Amino acid sequence: MAELSTVARPYAKAAFEYALSQGKLAEWSKMLGLAAEAVSDSAVQNVLGNPAISQEQKVEIIIDICSDLDENGKNFVQTLSEVGRLPLFPQIAEQFETLKAEQEQTVEVEITSAYELTSEQQTKLAQALQKRLNREIKIQTQVDQSLIGGVLIHAGDTVIDGSVRGKLAKLAEAMNS
User: By its UniProt entry, which PANTHER family does this protein fall under (predicted)?
Assistant: First the structure.
């Protein structure tokens, strides 16, 4: 069976192209995110997997949960239902966000540090990353004291490990080689 992301790709691309052509990237991003969250709920998964519930009822449930859907959003849910793809909403939303970020030349960066970063430190990191990645940067921070010091940066598929824990692990690996 094909990987879920492969199956979700044409739907994400179609939704993205439609939203882009209509100037509604933000609205579709919100709608797909909400639908993805709804479909990820265990109770909704049970409903979607229940063969005793008709496809029309499943569509109505998703539309009721995602009350902000416009007519085109409802049609998208209906189309996914007709081909049995409602459970793919999380993958579709994820790929849509990737296409949206690429279009907008932005990247979400997750910075994990051993201690809370000041706003000045966040600004300096954002400026450095913006130069390196040639994109607008949206930062999310979190604290993980097990890093001991330094930061661990995730930007898309790029990982920069400047943590003390990471450096100690590299040192230990080099000494054991």
Answer: ATP SYNTHASE DELTA CHAIN (PTHR11910)
